[in-house]
Amino acid sequence: MSTTPDHSLTQIDRSFRLEPTIPLCQTDLPLDWYQDEFKPYAEEFLALPDRDPATVLAYLDRYIIPAMDHFGDSLLLLAHFYMGGEIVKLIEHYGGGVADSYKLALMARESPEKKVIVESAVHFMAEAIAILANDDQQVWITNPKAGCTMEMLAKDDAVEPVADQLLERYGDELTVIAYMNTSGRIKAIAGRTNGAVCTSSNAHLVMRWALDQGKRILFVPDQHLGRNTAAKLGVPEDQVLTLPDPRGPIRLDDSEIDGGLAALDRAKVILWGSFCGVHTIFTPEMVGYWKSRGRTVLVHPESPLETVLESDGSGSTDYLWRAVMEAPSGSSFAIGTEGHFVRNAREQGALRGVDVVHLAEIPGSVSAGCGCATMSRNDPPHLAGMLDLLRKGEAPEINRVLAGDSIDETTMRRDRLDAGERAELIVQSKRSLEQMISIVEQSQS
Question: What is the residue range of 325's domain?
Answer without folding.
Answer: 284-358
